[in-house]
Amino acid sequence: MSASFLEYWEQIRLRIQNDFRQWIPELFGALPGSQLEAVLRSLEAGKRTRGCLVCLTCEALNGDIEAAISRAVGIECIHAASLIHDDYVDKDAVRRNRPAEWTLLGSRRAVLLGDVMFGTVIHKMAEESIAEGSLVAKVIATMARGAYQEHVDRSDLERLVGEGKDLSEIYESIIHFKTGVLFGAAAQLGAIAASAPAPMCAQSFRFGARLGEAYQIADDLADVVDLERLPRSRLSELSAVAPILLRFSQMTPPEVMRLMNGNHRGRSKWADREIPLIKERMRTEISARCASAIAELTDFPENHHTHLLREMPAEIVRSMEAADRVGPSSLD
Questions:
Q1: Given pLDDT bands bounded at 50, 70 and 90, which one contains residue 29?
Q2: What is the 3-state secondary structure (H, E, C) of 263-303?
Q3: Domain that holds residue 137
Q4: How many domains in the chain?
Q5: CATH code of the domain covering residue 14
Q6: Residues 30/117, Cβ–Cβ less than 8 Å
Q7: Please, which of 98, 162, 317, 329 could form a disulfide with 222 given CB 3.0 to 4.6 Å?
């Protein structure tokens, strides 16, 4: 039995990695060999955080981990497919210290490979049960909405201001849709694998969602830290972090628009004033989301695996902070 969450995480990571060779041909058996290798390549070297969450939730609810492994593989396939799409859209040429799939396959084949992975997991989960198929289909659709909303340009801000929208809520939607729901689905699939009742499945989803949101904020915090290193002349390159500024800074929407447009006077003073405040607020929010996640475990059985689930939020965030000290962070 693992004495700590980090030990459990490493054991599950290695097991899932080894099991890919068994499960991927079963999931994607209709694909030619070269395309199966592309699927396997897209799954290499990840942290398996979401797959670990499937397995640990299942065991905390007294389920058999054998029932969780195939679902963990499915969740990791969904995550890998989303990264294939993200890398192409963002034109990121490197993923996990390897060439991104679109640089190897070409943009068309890479995007279609991601689509095949999404569709196959939905199909296989639906064969297990209508509830599982519906869950992963909803999650994939929701993740796409989050990715679509992530980049906010000046015209978007002007439109939203004109509609009277609460712009601080943009960020909340993005982190929930983009990351929270996949973590939530991972935990819920673990509960389903344990044959847990519906209320416990719902609690599991909420635990995972809050954990995923904390995870996303921690990753975004690294982007804010990077702003401190960004030349003041390039502070207008902020469309990816505009939602962060709207949520955590003291800036008004017009001020954010001026900054994005390169017309913000006193950029050095802005950075010196706002960035420390943003970082402090983000760290406070990470702690709050972790506490909210743990609160969802109140009705879980008292056992060693539930104890590890309680450790998970803080350890995940800590591991991301450690990784950021040695290199760029990413939601792998």
A1: confident
A2: CCCCHHHHHHHHHHHHHHHHHHHHHHHHHHHHHCCCCCCCC
A3: 5-326
A4: 1
A5: 1.10.600.10
A6: no
A7: 329
pLDDT (0 to 100) of residue 283: 95
Residue type, 215: Y
Are 190 and 135 spatial neighbours (Cβ–Cβ below 8 Å)?
no
Task: Say how far apart CA 143 and CA 318 lie, in whole Å.
Answer: 25
332 within domain boundaries: no
| Confidence tier at 256 by pLDDT (50, 70, 90) | confident
Which pTM does this prediction carry? 0.90
User: Taking a C-beta distance cutoff of 8 angstroms, is the pair 247, 176 a contact?
Assistant: no
Question: Does a structural domain hold residue 331?
Answer: no
Q: What is the distance between the alpha carbons of residues 4 and 301, in angstroms, rounded to a whole number? A: 18
Mapped onto helix, strand or coil, the DSSP state of residue 302 is coil
State the helix-helix crossing angle for 5-27 and 304-326, rounded to 10 degrees: 90
38 in any annotated domain: yes
Q: Is residue 74 part of a domain?
A: yes
Amino acid, res. 181? V
